[in-house]
Design brief:
single chain; mainly beta; 4-stranded mixed sheet; 1 helix; 12 strands
């Protein structure tokens, strides 16, 4: 019984290690504001948690080498970009594999995504749909570039609608 348990634990550890190798970057998105109005600008936050030994390329990575990180808003939603995405200062160094200077993020990276609500957006619970394209590499190999789809909850309240505290008595 103990041998079977040990074998099962070893298989489980190998599976977890393989998953980390296949997905060394975990992405998340949040909207610090809970309520927005049509026409209002706000900032969403997109964060990457990068496994040890891995890195991704910055939003300012020059062309001709690895795939830079790109953050965009999905189409067909009541939200659009309201400016340029702002990222952390990357680490720059010469990369022998690409034979050029690369700009990378390791461990974590947080991005500010300026968003504007459409002027005629309907009221109600909603989510900002954010697409992130990136490439993860370690010192031995690079994974193919991929796109992840994120969402961040936000509530739209139309102009003229008052937001009231639910604990307050109705007028």
């Amino acid at each position: 019984m103990k041998k079977r348990l040990c074998a099962l634990l070893l298989l489980l550890a190998a599976a977890i290690g393989a998953t980390c190798q296949e997905n060394p970057v975990v992405w998340s998105a949040t909207c610090p504001v809970g309520v927005v109005h049509p026409g209002q600008k706000f900032t969403a936050k997109v964060s990457a948690r990068i496994a040890p030994g891995w890195h991704i390329y910055s939003i300012t990575q020059a062309p001709g080498g690895p795939t830079p990180t790109e953050i965009a808003l999905a189409t067909k939603q009541p939200f659009t970009l309201a400016g340029f995405v702002i990222g952390p200062l990357p680490h720059s160094s010469y990369d022998e594999n690409f034979q050029l200077e690369t700009d990378t993020y390791e461990r974590t990276a947080a991005f500010k995504v300026p968003v504007v609500v459409a002027a005629k957006a309907p009221s109600g619970a909603n989510a900002v749909a954010i697409d992130v394209r990136f490439q993860a590499c370690n010192d031995r190999n690079c994974l193919p570039a991929k796109t992840v789809h994120l969402s961040a909850a936000v509530k739209i309240i139309a102009a003229g609608t008052l937001s009231r505290n639910p604990t307050e008595p109705k007028p």
